[in-house]
């Protein structure tokens, strides 16, 4: 086991309760009554950085401000049972969290609106909440069920601040944390982070930072300058201090499932997507691909190789569109993909830039076009859109937002949108060993979920496999599960068998 720190953190709380003791507590002794999944909060601590912050206010950028209407990000990891008492584990996590907040003081602050309506992160060491919960009636097998929907009634209780809108960071902590101990000793560590303060890259940088400190390593320094677009005078005004609401119906019925795509399945899709025209196929296909080959946007030589992930996204786009039975043939379908701007800007900004540096690349096609064409065609469309999303496109989008500021319109108002978030390149398993073992699985809460919202996770094996978390209405999910063309690529990860 790696060395783990044991310094005392700056906290304001009652002491943590061990898992064994907590499971025997009478109902009145628990801080929160058991929710639908039988998860009970047994201690709540307010944790401050272990060193005072000297960081000045950080002004929210043109990439941060649109996220004020989004829910806080909710992501977490299941871990094997640690080889130490639960009271020691909680103390260890709180102590290392206090040191991690000193390294990343933005997460221990609050949002403040200045007299000129600029919104800043005030790094005032106000602190965060840390909850210790137990689930004496639940085990890892209750959460990670092969070939089944995610048990959202259980997973939602693994996270605090459920469905909190990011603007609430004016009044509430910018991050909250919960460690939940299951009956079999497995542990879930969940982080909830304000989406106007972090994007996915920054979120997982902090998760890695906390884990590194916990196991006795030094964290990687982060870049807190929020000026990669330069200074902007654009502001978002919220009269009377009443912030925005989310832009979608958070209570619409959804089924959620994590589909696993093995490295072999992804290689097969990539090979199909990059196959040259000719060598069989009917006259119609030859005509279609002949036109594509002479279109500079679609020519393989000009666009470069279609990636594994683009190939997978194309397969999802085709299948989900087929599953949406109510769409008319002339309806326009939209595939939105979150784009990390850090390496696309010129000059590039640091990979360790801490804040939002994302935009949304949009690809469209009609339902009939997707029905007529195949994986290669759809993947070519996605590839062309992403290849064109460079420095110029990013800066044009930023300039357009500054000319007309507004919150990011998450959702699917016409029922024909797919929104792909997160990334299979995020270090969810790599770098997140807190000192007692590598994570077993990643799961998310209910934040920012609607019809067509999808999130990409790396496969647990680290072999190029990918997990896609898919949220769809019940009837659409049922149709997708009956789609043999799609399901032939789906398998169960070996660690869940």
From TrEMBL:
Organism: Urochloa decumbens
Protein name (Swiss-Prot/TrEMBL): Acetyltransferase
UniProt keywords, alphabetically: Transferase
UniProt key word Membrane: no
GO molecular function: acyltransferase activity, transferring groups other than amino-acyl groups
Highest taxon, organism lineage: Eukaryota
Gene3D superfamilies: Chloramphenicol acetyltransferase-like domain
Keyword Transferase attributed: yes
């Amino acid at each position: 086991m790696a060395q783990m720190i044991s310094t005392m953190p700056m906290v304001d709380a009652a002491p943590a309760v061990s898992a064994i003791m907590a499971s025997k507590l009478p109902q009145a002794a628990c801080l929160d009554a058991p929710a639908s999944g039988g998860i009970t909060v047994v201690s709540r601590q307010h944790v401050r950085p272990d060193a005072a912050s000297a960081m000045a206010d950080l002004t929210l950028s043109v990439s941060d401000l649109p996220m004020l209407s989004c829910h806080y990000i909710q992501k977490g990891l299941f871990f094997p049972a640690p080889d130490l008492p639960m009271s020691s584990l909680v103390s260890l996590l709180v102590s290392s969290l206090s040191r991690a907040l000193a390294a990343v003081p933005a997460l221990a602050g609050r949002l403040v609106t200045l007299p000129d309506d600029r919104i800043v992160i005030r790094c005032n060491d106000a602190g965060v909440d840390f909850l210790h919960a137990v689930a004496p009636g639940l085990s890892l097998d209750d959460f990670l069920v092969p070939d089944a929907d995610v048990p959202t009634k259980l997973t939602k209780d693994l996270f605090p601040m459920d469905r909190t809108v990011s603007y609430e960071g004016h009044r509430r902590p910018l991050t909250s944390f919960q460690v939940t101990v299951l009956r079999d000793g497995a542990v879930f560590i969940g982080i909830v982070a304000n989406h106007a303060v972090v994007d996915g890259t920054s979120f997982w940088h902090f998760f890695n930072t906390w884990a590194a400190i916990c196991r006795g390593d030094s964290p990687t320094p982060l870049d807190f300058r929020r000026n990669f677009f330069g200074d902007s005078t654009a502001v978002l005004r919220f009269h009377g201090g009443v912030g925005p609401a989310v832009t979608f119906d958070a209570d619409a019925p959804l089924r959620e499932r994590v589909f696993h795509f093995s490295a072999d399945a992804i290689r097969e899709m990539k090979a199909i997507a990059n196959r040259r025209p000719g060598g069989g196929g009917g006259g119609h296909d030859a005509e279609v691909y002949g036109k594509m080959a002479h279109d500079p946007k679609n020519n393989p030589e000009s666009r470069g190789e279609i990636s594994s992930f683009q190939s997978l996204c194309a397969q999802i786009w085709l299948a989900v569109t087929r599953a949406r039975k109510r769409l008319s043939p002339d309806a326009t379908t939209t595939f939105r993909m979150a784009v990390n701007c850090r390496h696309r800007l010129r000059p590039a900004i640091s990979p360790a830039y801490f804040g939002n540096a994302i935009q949304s690349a949009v690809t469209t096609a009609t339902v009939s076009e997707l029905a007529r064409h195949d994986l290669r065609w759809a993947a070519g469309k996605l590839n062309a859109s992403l290849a064109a999303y460079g420095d110029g496109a990013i800066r044009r989008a930023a300039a357009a937002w500054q000319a007309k500021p507004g919150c990011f319109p998450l959702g699917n108002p016409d029922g024909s949108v797919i929104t792909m978030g997160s990334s299979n390149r995020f270090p969810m398993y790599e770098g997140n060993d807190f000192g007692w073992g590598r994570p077993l699985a990643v799961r998310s809460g209910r934040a920012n979920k609607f019809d067509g919202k999808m999130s990409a996770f790396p496969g647990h094996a680290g072999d190029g496999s990918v997990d896609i978390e898919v949220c769809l209405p019940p009837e659409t999910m049922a149709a997708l599960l009956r789609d043999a063309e799609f399901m032939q690529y789906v398998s169960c990860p070996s660690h869940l068998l």
